[in-house]
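worker-3 :: picked Carbohydrate ABC transporter permease
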Amino acid sequence: MKQQLGSRVFDTFNYIILAIISLSTFLPFLYVILVSFTDPIEFQTRALVIIPEHWSLASYKFILSTRTFLNSLSISFFLAVIGTACSLILTSGLAYALSRKKFRLKKILMMGILFTMLFNPGMIPNYLLVKELGLINTVWALILPVLTSAWYVILMKSFYQEIPEELEESAKMDGCTDIGVFFRIILPVSLSAIAAFGLFFAVAYWNTYFNAVLYINKDTLRPMQVVLQMLLIQASTQVGDPAVAQMLQSEQMLPPETIKMSAVVVASLPIIIVYPFLQRYFVKGMMVGSVKG
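worker-3 :: tokens ->
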């Protein structure tokens, strides 16, 4: 009885602490959403807006009608879709080849992959390489340098090694080539890993910021995270990019704070929508390459 009572008190205390922590992390997001839907006049007249009395979509209509923001949104969508597809094709193909015992270049490629994990060339050599390849001020500068990850390749390689080789042998007996085995047999049975790594790549491409600052100088090629950062700085300090300044000054009735909050919501919404559909693959995907007991 004493153990049961102590366990219940301990569990109740943990639930209270976790509820407080969860509430403290959720309230800032809730405040951002509420401010983004607040009527501009009400926001300017009230000292603090917790629950708006008058709701408005004016800030969303404004940012979604702005060419600068819409262009950056299209760039981010391109990176998330095309970049994720290219990364999944390269990562899964390379991992599958390394997982096969008959692949002759397996040891050499694995040494090269491990070398990239241990030694990072640094920012300046990466920039010089991208410049020599002629990728500066192109959208491919945000995709090709981060096309795959050595850690993801190793994890997916471990996953492919757990697939029975009898599946490949039976497919080859039916006339399948190596490429046919990969696309018709291996990929369908590894959807959990593909979905998990796909979400990781999509989030990374959607949140592209540092590489865009390094490699992109054209306003029309900046992804949404860079424009959002410029928007936040411009609205706070009145110093920043002219295109973003023009976007803020073109609508006098809208306060910069509501525009910032609306941009943050729009930037976060796609990932929030996609995540629940792929959440069921996370348990299997996070266990990729784990050691069986």
